[in-house]
Amino acid sequence: MRSRRPLPSTRRTPANDSEALAIRVLSMAGGDRPVDAVLREELNPSKGVPRDVARNVARWVFRHHRWRGLLDTSKSWMEQLAEARELARRFDTQSNSFTKEDWARVVPEWVWDHVEVTIPWLMSLQREPLVWIRTRPGTAGELIGEMGDLDAPCEIAPDALVYEGPEDLFRSPQFHEGRFEVQDLTSQLVTLVADPKPGESWWDGCAGEGGKTVHLADLMQNKGVVWATDRAEWRLKTLRARAGRAGLFNIRWGVWQGGDDRPKGVSFDGVLIDAPCSGVGTWQRNPHARWTTTPRDVEELAARQLSLLRAGAAGLKSGGRLVYAVCTLTRMETTEVAKAFTAAQPDFEPLPVPPIFHWGAGAGGPPNQVHFWPQDWQGNGMFVATWRKRKS
Ligand SMILES: C[S@@+](CC[C@H](N)C(=O)[O-])C[C@H]1O[C@@H](n2cnc3c(N)ncnc32)[C@H](O)[C@@H]1O
Q: Is the CB of 236 under 6 A from ligand 1?
């Protein structure tokens, strides 16, 4: 074990297994070992940690990172965990007792220059995230009746449900039967904005593990084709398993390095570039990431995003739709990429995103762009922009 901090003295011993394991995880993380990787290792089923203990450990560790900016890090891990618990309790019962200066410390300082920071956004980062699932189209009511603990709070995404029960969803028979996917609400909104039609051809350029690919294919009712590509071949293996579970056979896959090595012999009706990004929009779900992401990452990613978007655009037929998405909220990776693309590609015209998606803090920007802010949607923060390839 590589310990970066001494474990607490034996004068006060951790109250239970969860706390002791959380301290172990925190003390092992650092440098090139991010805390989420250590959590995955320590909570690996092969280590035999009981499920309720594992859940508590993750909660303790993430709560520590959520409140880290307000903690006295010179104190022992055990004292810090107690302080984080007290801050979370105070947030739940008296959120007004926090000052503007307190809120400013829940994210690193550089963020203020890169994101439209507001107190409601900062407060949203301090809440525990909801668990969203996506049911197969039109089956939400059926699943609610069967599984319970499910709620349908979002009218414009009728297949999106919040799960509030205690079970491990990945073990449920309905999951193994391909009847739902665990997928954040705003990721689902991206595919709803793309709005693919049965019989069309789509290319999901940065398909990763296929969250949006499978949704595209499902909305197309298994008719037409979705090409799923990614630079990381191993991610596509998960995608294939997901597609198989759902019985979707209108998906093809291949490796794309992000240049002109796109799928050949086909021009697409739609291209989705769900680009790699700094992930600032996921800081509620991944609180540790706020302490490791840097402004340099943001700059480098913005350049890569524009390059991927332009390379993806080359795959479209005349009149085809281009959708750019990122789960981040920095200006450089969102509005500035969109602006640079519009300026560089006169063969594309901005295509308005339907008004129902322009809501809350995300309303009021250019019609072809929308921010989904976590404080409005209770999901990850995301940005989407859309264009149409002009008819030549
Ligand atoms: C935000 S993730 C995609 C998530 C996925 N669309 C989903 O909904 O599950 C971005 C993906 O871009 C891929 N990527 C990064 N650089 C790339 C490149 N140069 N060419 C193609 N894919 C790339 C990453 O491997 C990663 O899977």
A: no
